[in-house]
Amino acid sequence: QVQLVESGGGSVQPGASLRLSCAASGDISRIRCMGWMRQRPGGDRREPVARIDVNEVKSIADSVKGRFTISRDNAKNTLYLQMNSLKPEDTAMYYCAATRFLICTEANYNYWGQGTQVTVSS
Predict the structure, then answer these.
(1) What is the rounded distance in angstroms from the CA atom of residue 24 to the CA atom of residue 46?
(2) Other residues' Cβ atoms within 10 Å of the Cβ of residue 62
(3) Start-to-end Cα distance in the chain
């Protein structure tokens, strides 16, 4: 089993920055891809934000490209999401997820964190 614990969410004004962290523990040697998903208020499904696989191949959603960056620290078993120039439409619950498959998709994710709330409002 793999446990994922997110942190770093909060309430900020538009234009601010936040860094989300996701600490992984357990049988992490099986993990091939990790990513961030979010669910906006009133949204009926989660949307992909960013992902990074074991070969360091990254993918960023068009809606956050140029503002968000995904990275990881293998020594700390931690995944990060640096979020800059935050907009009100970035308000959402952000989830860290991981999969044993090389490709991260919502359907492929085997493990999920509990989520961390990000609220962007003036």
Answers:
(1) 21
(2) 6
(3) 40
